[in-house]
Amino acid sequence: MKKRHSFFSFLAALLIVGSINLWVGTSHEMVVQADSIDQPTPINQIFPDSALAEVMRYQLGKSSVTDVVSQSELDNVTNVNGVSKEIISIEGVQYLTNLTNLRLGYNNIRDIQPLENLTNLTVLDMIDNELTDISPLSNLTNLTQLSLGDDSISDISPLAGLTNLINLYLTSYDLTDVSALANLTNLKDLWLSSPKLSNVSVLSNFHNLETLQMRSTLVSDITPIANLKKLTLLDVSMNEIKDISSLSELSNLTELTLTDNQISDISALSELTNLNYLYLDVNQISDISALADLSNLEELYVTDQTITNEPLTFQTNIVINNTIKDENGALVTPLDISDNGSYTSPNITWNLPAYTDEVNYTFEQTGSIGNGPFYFTGTVYQPLEEVPATYNVIFDIDGVQNSEEVVVDALLEEPAAPTKEGYTFTGWYDAKTGGEKWDFTTDKMPAKDITLYAQFSINNYQAIFDVDGTTTSQTVNYQSLLTKPTDPTKEGYTFTGWYDAKTGGNKWDFTMDKMPANDITLYAQFSKNPENGGTDTPSNGNKTKPKQPARENGTTITAIEKSTTLPKTGDNGTALLVLAGLLLTGASLLLTKQKKKSI
C-alpha cells in the first residue's frame, strides 16, 4: 500500500509541474505574439493617439475611430501616410506587420520603439520630429529609403547595418560624426546637414552616389568628394568651403550648387562641360572668365558676391584698380561708386574730405553662356585704416637713452634687459627711483611721450676669511668696504695681514679696497718669530755670524766692555749689571798687580 501511495504522489507532483510549465510556455507565447490582436478591436484602442487613430481610420476605410478592425485587416495595410498630423505616439503601429511604406514626418514623435519589429519596411520617413534615440531602427535591414531630420540625434550607429539603403536623408542639430555610415556603399542619394559637422571623410566610400546634398555644416575640406565620379547633382551650399579644386574631374555633373561659401577661385569648374545648372551666389568671386566654355549651361547665377580688398591707410586721395571681370575677361564697369568716387578704366578714384573707414563700388553684369543667361552681381569693399597717432617712448639706462615711436594703444616691444656690473636689473619704471613698473604684456602706449627708466638692485657677495683652513664669512654689498676681522693669532708667528692669496698676493686694505662683483677669499698670512725672542729673521733668510770677543792683555773683553753706548734713561736693570761688571774687572786688575809685586 505504501508503494502504491508513493507512486500516486509522484504522479500528482509530475502533473502539477507539467501544468506549470505548460502555463509558463503559453504565457511566453502570448508575449511573443503581442504584435497581433486576438480579436477585432476598435481603432482608437489599437492606436491610442487620436491623431494617428484618425490616420488609420482613413487608411482602413472606416467611418469612425470606434469601428473595430481585425488583425487580417491590419495585415493588409502596407502604406501609411501620416505627415503633419500632430501625432505624438505611434503605439499600435507594431501591429502593421506587413507595412512597407511609413511616412510620419513633421509630427511630435519622440519614441519609435513600436517600429522595432517592422522588418518589412522599405521606406521610412520620420523627418522633423523630436527624436533623440534611433536604436529601434537597427533591425530594419530591408530599408532602402530613410529620412531623419531636424532632430537632436547625435548617435547614428544604429544605421551602420542598413546596407540596403539607397536613399538617406539625415539632418540633426547635434550630429558631429557620420563615420557609422561607412558601410552604406549602395547609397545613390544622400542628404547631410548639421551645424556641428566638420569631417565628412566617409563620403569617399560612396562610389555609387548620384546625388549628394550637404548643406549648413562646418565642412571646409571636400576632397573626399573627388572620386565620386557618378555624381550628377551636387549641392554643398552654406558651408565653409574655399577650395573647390577637387571637383575638377566630376565630369558627369549636370547641376552644381556652391552657394554661400568662401569661394574666390572657380577655375576648377572650367572642365565640367556637362553642367546645365550652376549656382555660385554669395561667395567672393571677382572673375567668371573660367566659365566661358561651359556650352551646356542653361542657367548661371553668380549674384551677391562680396569682395573685400586688403586695408589701405587713409588718404584724402584713394585710387584702386577695378578687378571685376566678365565671361570674356573684360573689366566690368562699376555700377555705383560710394562717396562720389569716379571711374576711369582701370582705376576707381575717391577724393575724400575726411576720414572714413571704407569705400566701395557695386557691379552688375548679365549676358549668356552656353544655352542660357547668367547674372553676375556684387560689391567690392575697400577698408581704410586711419593714420595711427604715434608718440615717443624713451628707454633710459643711467642717462644713456634710446627712443622709438609707438602707436597709441599698442603694446611696447620690450628691449633686451640691460646689464650693470654688481647690479641686477629689476625692470623698466616710469621714474628713476620708485614709480610704477611697466608691464609689456598689458600696458599700452598712452597718447603722450613717456620715459621708462632701467632700475637695478645692488648685488651682495661673500667675503671669506681663511685662517689656515678655518673660514668665516661676511655678506657685503658691491663696492662697499669690508669689516676688518679681529687679527688672528698663531703661536710662534706674527700676523702680517689679509691677502688675496695663500702666499704672496696683494694685501687687502680695509680702508680703501671695496667689494668687487664676485665672491672673494682673503687669507691670513703670518711671519715666523726668531727662536731667541729677538727681532724677526731677516726676510732674505741669511744668518749673521756672531763676532768673537776681543782680548786685551790676556783678558777677554766682551762686547759689553767694548761698548760705549750708554744705557737708555730708565733702563735700571742694565745699568746695575754694567756697574757690577766694572767693579769686578777693577778688583781683578788690582789683585793681579799685587801678585806681581810680591813675586
From TrEMBL:
Keywords: Cell wall, Leucine-rich repeat, Membrane, Peptidoglycan-anchor, Repeat, Secreted, Signal, Transmembrane, Transmembrane helix
Subcellular location field: Secreted, Cell wall
Keyword Ion transport listed: no
Database matches in Gene3D superfamilies: 2.60.40.1220, Internalin N-terminal Cap domain-like, Listeria-Bacteroides repeat domain, Ribonuclease Inhibitor
One Pfam family per UniProt: LRR_adjacent
Membrane-traversing stretches: 573-592
Domain of life of the organism encoding this protein: Bacteria
Chief subcellular location: secreted
Topological type in the membrane: Peptidoglycan-anchor
Region (Disordered): 527-559
Biased composition (Polar residues): 527-543
Limits of the Gram-positive cocci surface proteins LPxTG domain: 566-599
Entry-linked PROSITE patterns: GRAM_POS_ANCHORING, LRR
Translocase keyword on record: no
InterPro entries (UniProt xref): Cu-Rt/internalin_Ig-like, Ig_E-set, Inl_IR, InlB-like_B-rpt, Internalin_N, Leu-rich_rpt, Leu-rich_rpt_4, Leu-rich_rpt_typical-subtyp
Family, as annotated: Belongs to the internalin family.
Protein known as: LPXTG cell wall anchor domain-containing protein
